[in-house]
Structure formats: structure tokens, C-alpha cells
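Forwarding these from the shared drive since the link keeps breaking.
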Amino acid sequence: MEKEKLLSILLSLYFVLVVVTDFYYKYSVVNNIDLFRYSFLLKLIIGISLVSFSCFSLKLVDYKKTCVIFFLLVLCSIISIINIDERVRYSVLYIQGQYFFGIIVSFFFFKFYKKIVYKYLETTLEVILWINLVLIVVGSFYGTPLFKTYIHGTRFGYSGLFKSTSVATYFYMFGFILFFLKRKSKYNYLLLLNVIMALLFIGSKSSYLFLFLVTLFLIGKAILNTNRIKKLKLFFGFFVTISIVIAVVIFKVIISLNPVLKEVFETHGVVTAFFSYRDHLVTDVLLIVKEKYKLMNYLFGGIEHVPRLTEVAIIDLLITFGVVGGGLFGYIFVHNFPKIKKLEMKFMLCIIGLIIMLRGDFFYFPSVVYMALAIFALIVKAEEPNKMNLKMI
């Protein structure tokens, strides 16, 4: 138990340090100061710590398939960089390293969530939620650049401590699922309202899409639970139609209230406005792939040919590791994913999965993947309410 307590305190400390170092980086960007990037060093320490703990705590023979697949993924990475220009080799290794960090963190939280004393991580999360809500409110009242989601430009959004849209959006989406699951106490209801308010203030289309789809699901489920619907097909047809109409109206309102999105919408259309130019990035990358890729690039990746990632998860994964490496990466993640029992949780996680597929910025963003999966571990554990290390709900 002492070992598990120390691990839990360490994970909570890492959680705080991820937030602090990211805010430190955000501060340097806002004030145009060239500061040392402590966040990179922290992520390196976290990765080494989690690998070490996993190696010493697990019987690796029980996970030999995952170990073999991981070794093959490393081999794919080596093959992909053997013959590339040395000037871009470091950049390629850096991006691949971020993906490996994502796999390490995923495996750790998927396999060790039962061994963590969760009161430390939960308390840490709650404190950050309250502090960040204050910063978001202050930022929205005074227009404080340091607390804005979009530092450059006039687009609306306040994320407080968090350095990017992705970090804030995934942090609060996973937070929503956790406190929705634990909403039986008044305090957890307050935390849920905290999360909803933050999702509205972040200003990202992903946060609005998440709230919209979750709301539709809960309304539809509540109606069906009344057992008054006799013609299910007719009901679903009507419900989907109304939902689409409401979605179009909300999207138009968001566009009209945001000068940046409005200009993109009027210039390039609804698809580009929704994807924030990701559709253009995908088109450009596909043209480069068609022109420059060789067989080895298709199999093991050819990220050196691409000026930047598309921020669409599947495409970026294939660019980085190719068909072979991308398949191995996906297998490790899916094979070790814990079972989710509750229908609401499955649906909400599917929404997040859809958003990841559409916008990316998850597996290769170390801050995102660590904080999101730490909260995910709390979610999985919250489905086991009788365990001693779960705070009473």
C-alpha cells in the first residue's frame, strides 16, 4: 500500500508540474520571452518513470505480445529514419518520440489504474479546476492575454492556465465524463457545472460539439426511458432531423459571433470553417505523398517529406509510422484499452474518439495525453465504487 501511495503522490505531482510548465511556456510566448522549455525535460522524466515502474511492477512475460509489438514499432521508427537527411532527422525523431510518450502513458494508465490511490489525483484535479475557473472568469472580464485560448488574433476563448486549445479541450471533456459519472453529491454537481462553464468559455468548436452531442444523447435517452415512444423509427427520424436543424443554427451563431471564423466561412466555405483549414492541410499532404512517397514511406512513414502535420489523427499517424507502424500503434492502444461498462460513458468516449479522429492533437501532444488519460483512469476507477481508493460519491 505504501508503494501505491507514493506512486499516486508522484502521479499527482507530475500532473501539477505538467500544468505549471505548460503555463510557464504560455507566459513566455505571450510576453515574447525566450525561456528554457522545462516541459520537454519534465515529459522525458515522466516517460522514464512510467517505463521503469511498469518494468519493475509487471511480469512482462504476461504482456509479451504488447512488448513484441512495441519493439516492432521501434524497429519501424528506425527503418523510417535510416536514409533521411540529417538536417530533418532530429525533427522526425522528436515527433516520433512524442508518439512513443503517448503509447507509454496509455499503457501505464490502462494497466495500473487499479493500483493508484485516487484521492491524491482527484484532489489535485479539483484544485486545478477551481483555480482555472477563476482565471477564466478574470480573463473574460478583463481580456487578459495570458488567460486567452487563442493568444494571437481576436478569436474568442479563455483557457486560463492551459497553453493550447487541445490541452484545455481534452482536459475538460474527460473531466465532464468523470463528474457526470460521480454526480450524486452536490459538490460533484458543482464540479460538473464548473467543467460545463469552462467548455463554453474555451471557445473551441470541439468543446461545443462535445456538449451538443452529449446533450442530444441525454435528452434522447431520457425520452426513451419514459416508455411512451411507440414508433421508434419515426421518433429517431424526427429527433435526428431536429438535431441537424439545431446544429446548423448553433454553428451559424458561433460563426456570426466570431470575426475570424466568419471570414474563413465567407472565403472558403463551411468545411474549412469547421476544420479550421485542416482540410487544406490534408489536401496538400496527399499531393506531397502522391509526388514524393516511395514504397518504404508507405510502409514505415515519410514524415520528412511533409512540412507539417495535418492535425487529423489517422492521417498524421500514417505519415509518421506508415501503414505497418500505424497498425502496430493502433493495436497497442486498442488491445490494452480497459472495458467500459456504462452506456453513457461509452457514448461520451466515442464522441471524444470522433473528435480525436477529426482534429488530432492527442497522441503526439504529451501534455494532452498525460492529463487526459490520468483523468480517464479516474473515470474507469469510478465504475468500481466499492473500492477503498475511490472517494465516496
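-- next protein --
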Amino acid sequence: MKDEGTRWSALRSRPRAAIQAARARIRASPRRAAASVTLIVTVAFSVWSLIDGLLNSSNQGLLDPSSLTVVKLLHVLQTTDGYMNKAGWREQDGTFVPSASAGKRGWRGWRFFKAVGRKTVPTRLTGILFRPVRFVGRRVLLPVVRSPARLVASPFRALGRRLRRRREKRQTQLQQSENVTAAPVAIPNKIVDFTRSLSKTPRNKACGSVREVHQIGAVFPGVDPVFLMEVMTNPMYGIQWNPAIRSIVLRQHRRVGANAALLDVFSEAALTDGLWRNPAKLSRSTSNEYDVTAQVSEIPLPMAIVKLAGGPRYSADFVAARYDCQARRGFTVGTSIGADQVAEAAGVAKAQDLCVSAMMISPYEGAFNGSRIHLVSHFDPKIPSQTLRSLINHQLPGSIKLLYSALHKKALEVQAAGRHPFVDC
């Protein structure tokens, strides 16, 4: 029995001895320990960079101007990090719908960490005290354990209180709904739920030197999506209602196949030939056809800036559109890549690069019916000054809000007339 106990004591002391030996080596040679940590961090970062490059390498070369198609443009929109995965929308049956997890970021489980001030406070779920600390440049919360019994009991007590409050709230709501008849909700006469945010693409997916992507959404109360799509795509309504365009220099509309090269469809000969005719309606097909418009428009800058810039600035873009009549969803997706010959045919120079821009529409059902719209915009204004680019990023959401308000007002006018000839559903 004595030999047995001695053997077990020796086995238990081995891990302890190994730990003590490692601590002694670190104390004896701190430089070697620091070098080991640096090596581990460097290897981890290299592996992460390799994985990130492999995940994003499939998008490279897809926006080659000579082979640009609508399918490739949509592929880049859906697969590039910073576009659709940050928009809260996803593809469904050829169009886009708001994702069920829109607005959720990071871990989807119970959130034991939350932003607090400098003092330690209990979280809403567990009631355990957390102290803010710095970790890799970010502030995180670590639990302050005062006693094992409190650490084990606090989560269950807090969870029980939360469930009890939720059950009492539901009972109160049921009693109120039984006794009181709900009053009709008035439909707002302006856009609601306006959201804006900035996301970033990987460095190898930057638009010029710009990685920032604008994500701007809103809800249009009382507007059916078909009338919203009618105003966005029908040239019959002109540009007087649109504060984002001062004038249109050139506009040609074609119905093209999904894999047709846009530079072949809008060739120099086709742009200068006066025998073409725009389609009278938007295509109702949801399989292999898209309505694509080549357009050159003047950017609405203040006259003082126009004089300083030496003249007006123009944008030349390809814009593809589709609307699903059964699902009542639609979208437009555009780019200026390869549109230099369109600008040359109009006799102007392209002043900015629009890498990818998409505007998605879907029905909205809630306290009132309407339409939900979301814009994804990634562009390079070709301004070398970082200060001016930051100013543009700050002012753009306000300009888009003005555009949304004007679009909402015009769509209500068209809906009151009851006709949507271009989007013939």
C-alpha cells in the first residue's frame, strides 16, 4: 500500500513539475518567451490571411470589362464580403428579400457581455458582476467571481425573474386585447425606419482605394412595390422629381441575356446607331433575361463646386433591372466598370467609378403595409483628399434620404393614378 501511494503521488506531481519547469524557463529567458509568443501570433495571422485570400479569391477578375455580364455582376454582389452579408438581405428565387437575421451581428446565443461604463454592473441575464478590461484593442467584460455559490445561483435566479416578468407581461397584453378594441393605425405620410451604416470590403476588393460600402435602407408606408419599381425604371416620368440627377445626356435600354457581354451589347456602333428602339415594358421573365440600361447623367453638384472643378461632372453606368410580379419583389444593380465607351459616345468624361450599386425592393407588412427598400453602394469619387472623401461619406446618407423622400412622394402620386404601364403585371 505504501508503494501504491508513492506511485500515485509521483504521477500527480508530474504535471505540477512540468508547469514549474516552464515557469522557470520563462523567468530565465524572457526574450525567448517573447520570441515564442511573437512566432505563434505571426503564424496564426499568416494562416488567417491565407484562408481569407482563398475565400475571396473566387471573386477576382469577375468584373473584367471585356467579359462583364449581369450574372457576374450579381455574383460579385452576393459573394463579396461587405455587400449582401452586411446588408441583411439574401437572394431568393431570382430577387432579394430581407434576411430573418437582419440587424443581428456576431454571436447569436445569449449575450453575457454588454457595453457598460467604467463601473462593474450585473448583466441583464445572469446578474453576475462584470469588469471592463482591454483585450486586443477592444473593451470586453470579465466576470468578477466573489463566491462559487453566488456564481452558480445568480444565473438561475436572474433567469427565473426574467421569465416571470415576461409571463406577467403577456398576461397583461392578453387582458388588454380582450377588453379594448385596437384603434386603426394611421399610415405615415413620410418614410420611416431609415437606417444607415458603413461596411468594409477586403483590401483586395477595394473600389480604387475605397473600401467603405454604404448600406442605407428605409420603409415606404402605403406604397405597393410595383409602383415603386415603376417610378424607378420608367423614363416617362422624367427626372424633375429626382434630386440625384441634374440631366441625362444619353440613355439606351436593351433586353439582354444573362450571359451576354455588356460591351458587345452596348458597342460603339450600337450606341451611335439611331435605329435602335427602347423596349416598351419591363421584362416579365425571371429566368434568363434582364433589362439593362446604359446611361450617362450629370451629377447634381452646387454651381460653386462646378466652377472650381472646371465644369460639370458626369457618371456613366450600366444598370440591370428585374421585377417578380408574383413575389412583388424587384431590384436594380449597376456598375460603371466598362462604361467608358458609353461616356465617349455621349461626348463627356466619366468623373467617378461606381464599382457596385444595388437597390432592392420587397413588400413590408406590419402596423401598415408598404415597401421596404435597401441600397448597397460602393464607389470611388476619385478625390485624392481623404478629408473630402470623409465629408462625402458623411453627407451621402442625407442625400439618399432626400432621394427616398422624393421617390416616396412620386410613387404615391403614380399609385393614386392606378397605372403602371412599364412594369406590366
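DSSP finds eleven helices and 13 strands in the chain. The longest strand covers residues 353-365.

- D.
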